[in-house]
Amino acid sequence: MTKKLITFGRVCMLSILMINASCDKDEEVVLNAGNFITSVKLTSGDFTKDFEIKDNEVNGVVPYMIDDLDIALAITISDKATVTPDPSTITSIKDPINFIITAENGEKKNYVVNIKRELSPENEIVSFQIKTDLFKTNVDIDNETGKINQRVLPNTMLTSIETTGVISDRATISPDPKTISDYRNPITFTVTAENGESKEYLVTLELMNEEYAAQCDISNASKWFGGDDREGDLNPGGIGPRNVGTGQVILVAKDTYPTKFGFLLRRPFESRRTNTNYLGDLEFKLNIRDINGVVIASKNIMINGPFTGGWIDFDLTSLNLLLKKNTQYNFTYYLINGEALGVSSGSDANLNVDSGICGATGFSGTSKERENTSLEDWSVWYSHEWHFNFRIEGKQ
Predict the structure, then answer these.
(1) pLDDT digits 0-9 by tens, 33-54
(2) Which CATH code, of 1.10.10.10, 2.60.40.2340, 1.10.3880.10, 3.90.79.10, is assigned to 125-207?
(3) Quick one: DSSP state of residue 54?
(4) Which pLDDT score, from 0 to 100, does residue 119 have?
(5) CATH topology (fold) of 211-395
(6) Vertex 93: Cα angle to 90 and 95 (nearest 5)
(7) pLDDT tens digits along 195-209
């Protein structure tokens, strides 16, 4: 019985039963000569593509959305061959890549991988922001017509406008919005895509000079407004001391600079515990909130007593507030220290279906000191089915 010992030089026959050994003539081991790339796959994010190999070259294109500086290559090669550089180290196809495939027997073959990303045709202004000493806002963009129109607060200096533009990826814009501050006349910007296609945008800023006013005063209902200091059995339903505020959604059809906002109270403030009218001064607070309830501006007003009922108007001129069209703003208002004063009135409202700005959602809010809540907390406010009476003035 014998065994074979394989060496690179010869094959020796060993006898299990004999100590001596005899060797046959030398035999060569044939090493693999394969030095081919057999497949190439590119991956970038969710995108994957296999590429054809032809005449030691791999040519192709990928969509322009692909980040050509963040790719992965998967390359398979002949059995027992090696590849340089390591494909796993390649993250960019910005330039052609030379791969050297070395067979097991040492023979080399060169491959060129030349995969290009298509040039982007996108040439849009994605966002455009204007900023002044008074306010800042993101401007509406009409990408179909290339027009960007914005009416700005009446006291805006059109020679001192700071603008910032965000454009399509890989595009360029001329002139740079950051270099333009004088908008007394319309400014034309040219956005050029990576593939050379260009598009013009005309930016026009104008001062608001149109008077605007709306008043919603149909009144057929009234909701508690103000404080209550009654405890226990004196307070029906065991509600206990509290302060109750009112709110109203404001939704304008055009960008508006509000100069006044008012709400209507039906009667004098009265203590339900003593059944007497309150004759002293009263302070009210208005919070203007975004759709999520975040306060973006506030205003207080002091009313000299005795208050007999009627409109409570806040002067909003100093807020330099810009209400964007078709954007929900939540105006919430309440009596300062209402729970401690223990006096209340009634918020006038229309409980019927209404239209336009008068038909928006109402709000009610209730805070209780014993629960450490405040009408500053958005969590204590909830939508109400009534449309509360209010009036608003300004410029558009």
Answers:
(1) 999 999 999 999 999 999 999 9
(2) 2.60.40.2340
(3) E
(4) 96
(5) Jelly Rolls (2.60.120)
(6) 110
(7) 999 999 999 999 999
